[in-house]
Specification:
Blueprint: H1 2-12, H2 29-50, H3 56-80, E1 84-89, E2 94-97, E3 103-105, E4 111-116, E5 126-131, E6 140-146, E7 149-155, E8 162-165
Antiparallel strand pairs: 1-2, 1-5, 2-3, 4-6, 6-7, 7-8
Length: about 170
């Protein structure tokens, strides 16, 4: 009888205490492939967000450069008491002040749009914003964008005030 009692004691041990050899083997090849596939999909979605292109600082710097050119043109118009303009080439991503003709180039990855008076559009890709001797302007907006990020450089038609809008 003592042997039977010993057997019953062995069988009375709960299953949770027994070592499980099947779980301690590691991961299967299928599990490994699934995890690697998920990581590849996530990397494919995240990497383009951070790679290449124009940084937010460069985009804001380009907006400040355009705003500075427009403010300079307004100051020139007030100082010389003559109409002054800024000509923007959207295709080449450049702008220049009409009197001096010095061309300022923006990064190529930036998309540039111009909203101005119909009479100041030279072609589909070239237009101008003019400033009058009293400081006023024909008004307009230059939009600089990279993907979903954008800055609008706004010129008020009445006062000629130049402002950068987020």
């Amino acid at each position: 009888m003592s042997e039977r009692v010993a057997e019953r004691i062995v069988f009375a041990v709960p299953r949770a205490r027994r070592p499980r050899r099947a779980e301690s083997r590691g991961v299967t090849l299928l599990e490994l492939l699934i995890v690697l596939s998920i990581m590849a999909i996530v990397a494919a979605m995240v990497v383009p967000m951070f790679g290449g292109g124009v940084s937010t600082g460069e985009l804001k710097g380009a907006a400040r450069q355009v705003a500075a050119g427009l403010r300079l043109a307004r100051s020139e118009a007030l100082a010389t008491r003559k109409e002054t303009g800024v000509v923007l080439d959207l295709e080449r991503r450049t702008f220049r002040l009409a009197p001096d003709g010095h061309e300022h180039t923006l990064p190529h990855a930036i998309d540039m749009k111009l909203f101005t008076a119909q009479s100041d559009l030279v072609s589909d890709s070239v237009g101008a914003i003019r400033f009058f001797p009293d400081g006023g302007s024909n008004g307009g907006r230059v939009t600089l964008a990279v993907g979903a990020r954008k800055y609008d450089v706004d010129v008020d038609w009445l006062t000629g005030r130049v402002a950068i809008l987020d």
